[in-house]
Automatic annotation (TrEMBL):
Membrane topology type: Single-pass membrane protein
Recorded superkingdom: Eukaryota
Organism name: Zingiber officinale (Ginger)
Protein name: Protein kinase domain-containing protein
Taxonomic placement: Eukaryota, Viridiplantae, Streptophyta, Embryophyta, Tracheophyta
Keywords per UniProt: ATP-binding, Glycoprotein, Kinase, Membrane, Nucleotide-binding, Serine/threonine-protein kinase, Signal, Transferase, Transmembrane, Transmembrane helix
Length: 661
């Protein structure tokens, strides 16, 4: 209240500008001189015989202004090992080649070649790209059924989940269709001789690691002038926040260049306080001068101008494309190149100047909300690497005339296309493929929920599940996703998402949890077994929502009326049993009370158990049956290996509590 009166008094007397100036000046004078970058701090360091210099720097040995965050390395004093940590995975640096901006990486446990295979989806990460000088190894994993179709060129590999492995010659990041429809194929880069043929030592190849190229500011001008390149996180207007630290202070470009006007870097707390006070005074000014609509417009412009291109490229770790390049890539966003559209924008097929085929999403309009969703998707996807998540190649600047995102091109459309859309008549998705889609989607969601901090997708649906050339899953569209505090049970936020998929408890309580994604995924499971859309106004009123329809059919032992007739007709008894098991799992996911739903990790485990089960497979079928029997007796007394597995009357708990967790 006192603060408001002071602000009003200053505003009425037009004294807020000089008062703010004096306040900021006094704060700047009070900033500690020790925050100034020191020349000796950023001198090259040795770790295990490897010289570490800009853009790389060593955590705990050098301050953060010695290099960009993406190049921070850790040096183990006892072993001299040097590594980079990305998403809690350690990438060991065997050698840095500064002359051609490349690094020789290997994964942590060099005695376990399987670790390399399981880590292949993180072999390329900004600002490092897998070098074309590598060779590649193909490996088959998650195999089921007969392996008779696997070519003899694939050798046996004694790794968990990995069945066969083959040396594939020159490295090519484009994935190849699996030679066996019952297996998933992966590709890992390795260093090796292209003349390798018979008798390949795959363990040695995997231990040798791979080469990666990196992009960083050229430091030669600064170094030639006697300076050392550094990084100023508070001044990202220059590319990569680059500065030249010289014996006589900080300069821009070189020691003979212009002196940095911000020689003393304000301590974080002081700068934050000054910024907060400045924003408070500015807010008072805006309230008095503009209408509500003008204020919203200004807010959008202020946020847009405060987000610099270097923040996208450095902090969000992704490439910034020029708008003109993407216009060229899509033939001026020609309608013939449209792949689809949704609530946030139209997706086009494009070809970049480097020859890559990409998917280009052009967002509708450009306002505060669109900029927020745009930056949210860039932030999340730039930090994630998983085989079942779509890869973000980059975006335009937020200051571009339009907001555009660039993704890897996924050629086989969406799951919705194949279930209810333009490709449904082709009947490509067999039951094993549908079950595999469910497993891979659950795998992606489990990964999102397991990272630190966890990520809630918030828009899980079949139109956001893409299929690549081998019909492997790529989960997409993170515009609504939320970073979830690790120690929180829920986040209070206004409901957003797609009708038919949104958690009813989320609507009722405005509390977003990991179980919200589980509910949406339950709808996806029902779509996979029924081929019906989540919302269909042509159905009876009580069945417009597929989730309601599914719960009613399962409770009334009418599963056959829910399942896709053609899918049921062409399935044998073992497949029908698995369909029934997936229906039971969907039933659990669709409980109105979030506490009664399984966690997504449990859902994944259940789906894997179902895939491995059959009535004649003994322990595996019993394992799946035991997993599906809920402790709360949602589905008790069900004979899991019976064709009448859904004959029992199941009870759906419909009461949801909004009590704070």
């Amino acid at each position: 209240m006192i603060g408001e009166r002071i602000t009003m008094w200053l505003t009425r007397r037009k004294l807020w500008i000089p008062a703010l100036f004096l306040l900021l000046s006094s704060l700047q004078r009070a900033a500690p001189e020790s925050a100034t970058p020191r020349y000796d701090d950023c001198a090259p360091r040795l770790c295990g015989g490897q010289e570490v210099r800009f853009p790389f720097w060593i955590i705990d040995r050098q301050p953060s202004y010695c290099g960009p965050p993406a190049f921070a390395l850790t040096c183990l004093n006892d072993t001299g090992a040097l590594f980079l940590t990305v998403l809690n995975i350690k990438f060991y640096v065997l050698r840095i080649f500064y002359s051609n901006s490349s690094v020789h990486f290997t994964l942590g446990d060099a005695n376990d070649p399987c670790a390399f295979l399981l880590g292949t989806n993180t072999s390329g990460f900004f600002p490092f790209n897998v070098s074309d000088s590598n060779k590649r190894i193909f490996f088959l994993y998650n195999c089921s059924g007969s392996e008779s179709a696997i070519p003899r060129s694939y050798q046996n590999m004694s790794c968990p989940r990995v069945k066969r492995v083959m040396f594939g010659g020159e490295y090519d990041p484009v994935r190849t269709r699996s030679p066996n429809p019952n297996c998933t194929v992966g590709v890992v880069p390795v260093m090796g001789d292209s003349n390798i043929s018979a008798g390949i030592n795959y363990t040695a190849l995997l231990r040798a690691g791979w080469m990666a190229n990196y992009t960083a500011r050229n430091c030669s001008k600064c170094a030639a002038s006697g300076g050392r390149c550094g990084y100023d996180a508070n001044n990202t207007s220059t590319w990569q926040g680059s500065i030249c630290i010289c014996p006589n202070g900080v300069h821009l470009g070189s020691c003979s260049g212009k002196k940095n006007s911000h020689r003393t870097l304000l301590a974080a707390g002081t700068a934050g306080s000054a910024g907060l006070l400045a924003l408070t005074c500015a807010a008072v000014f805006l309230v008095r001068r503009f209408t509500k609509s003008q204020r919203n417009s200004t807010l959008s412009r202020n946020i847009s101008s405060s987000l610099k291109d270097s923040e996208i490229q450095d902090h969000f770790q992704t490439h910034v494309f020029s708008y003109d390049e993407l216009v060229e890539a899509t033939d001026c966003f020609d309608s013939s190149r449209e792949l689809g559209d949704g609530g946030f924008g139209i997706v086009y097929k494009g070809k970049l100047r480097d020859g890559r085929t990409v998917a280009v999403k052009r967002l509708y309009g450009k306002n505060y909300k669109k900029v927020e969703q745009f930056m949210n998707e860039v932030k999340i996807l730039s930090l994630l690497r998983h085989q079942f998540l779509v890869s973000l190649y980059g975006s335009t600047s937020h200051r571009s005339r339009e907001l555009v995102l660039v993704y890897e091109f996924v050629p086989n459309g969406t799951v919705a296309d194949h279930l209810q859309g333009r490709r449904a008549a082709e009947r490509i998705l067999t039951w094993p493929m549908r079950l595999r889609i469910a497993i891979e989607t659950a795998d992606a969601l489990a990964y999102l929920h397991a990272v630190d901090p966890p990520i809630i997708h918030r828009d899980v649906k079949t139109t956001n599940i893409l299929l690549d050339d081998g019909f492997r899953v790529k989960v997409a569209d993170f515009g609504l996703s939320r970073l979830f505090p690790a120690d929180a049970t829920h986040v209070s936020t206004a409901p957003q998402g797609t009708p038919g998929y949104v958690d009813p408890e989320y609507y009722q309580c405005f509390q977003l949890t990991g179980k919200s994604d589980v509910y949406s995924f339950g709808v996806v499971l029902v779509e996979l077994i029924s081929s019906k859309p989540a919302i269909d106004l042509r159905r009876e009123k009580i069945e417009v929502h597929l989730a309601n329809m599914a719960i009613a059919k399962i409770q009334n032992h009418e599963l056959v009326d829910l399942v896709d007739p053609e899918l049921w007709r062409t399935s044998d008894e073992a497949a029908r049993m698995r369909i029934a098991m997936v229906a039971e799992l969907a039933f659990r996911c669709l409980q109105s009370d979030g506490d009664r739903r399984p966690a997504v990790k449990e859902v994944l485990e259940g789906l894997v158990a179902i895939e491995n089960s059959a009535c004649d497979s003994g322990d595996k079928a019993e394992d799946a049956a035991n997993w599906l029997r809920d402790d709360a007796s949602l589905m008790h007394n069900v004979a899991m290996c019976s064709p009448d597995t859904v004959a029992g009357k199941w009870v759906s708990q419909s009461t949801a509590s909004c009590a704070s967790q």
